[in-house]
Amino acid sequence: MKKVVAKKKFGQNFLKDRSVLYKIIQSMPNNTNRIVEIGPGLGDLTKELVKYKDVTAYEVDRDLYSILQVEFIKELDSNKFDLILGDVLDQWSLKNSLYDGKYDLIANLPYYIATNIILNALDDNNCENIIVMIQKEVADKFTAKCGEKAYSSLSVITQLLSKEATTLCVVPPISFEPPPKVDSAVIYIQKDLTKSLNNGFKKFLKVCFSQPRKVLLKNLSSVFDKKQLQIIFEEMDIKPTARPHEVDASLYSHIYTKVTNNGRKYSS
Ligand code: SAM
User: Fold this and answer.
1) 205-228 pLDDT, tens per residue?
2) For residue 153, which of 114, 181, 203, 212 sits 20 to 30 Å off, Cα-Cα?
3) Distance 114 CA to ligand 1 centre (A)
């Protein structure tokens, strides 16, 4: 096979450390869901995944798509493997889901769109579990618990939509070819499919965490009436000096319900 030159614009860092591949495989949930892989690349992870389950993969790079078509000819013929050429975010805009039935997302994601991909997967009702490699800094934001430095709007969204969100392992740059500039991490999110969040609440969270080091009350006062907020905080026993990372995820839902019920529906 001709040597493949990694394309930076597609976030191509191919995972070479097989121990990380096995760690991902070992963490696969024990269910009959299909697997959706985003960015199969040269197919190293895909080769392991198809041994256990049926896989649908989305690859945006036409050159890699052609290589994968040859490499997985048997699996494609037997319908164990379905390979789609295109931008995965377009698929979500067109169809709201990456697969028609229940699926688990397992992938070494392109980092430049990793946050968007995870947020879409959290919203996708057919997706039950998410096991993905992303930049460690972003991984920390998704999995942080209340009180931790990395606790952010992404942590709150994840906690409200999942039963579990943890980091499985940290992966150094040397495990990839070419090596990325930063550490990576594999995270596992088991979703709670009974839960959903509306866009108004997500916008509200952006306001809450707009200045993470300032107090929450100050951030919220840029949009809502300060006196009313003070009453709500007192009713809910939240200190007026609390910073955004010190407030539990469930309290954010309650604050939102109260500020919107008070006739100040957040709509910007
Ligand atoms: N899975 C391979 C591995 O572990 O070595 C490659 C992972 S590499 C970090 C990211 C992959 O995502 C590349 O194959 C890249 O071409 C693909 N990709 C980038 N942007 C994409 C997009 N918008 N839609 C689908 N695939 C994309």
Assistant:
1) 999 999 999 999 999 999 999 999
2) 181
3) 10
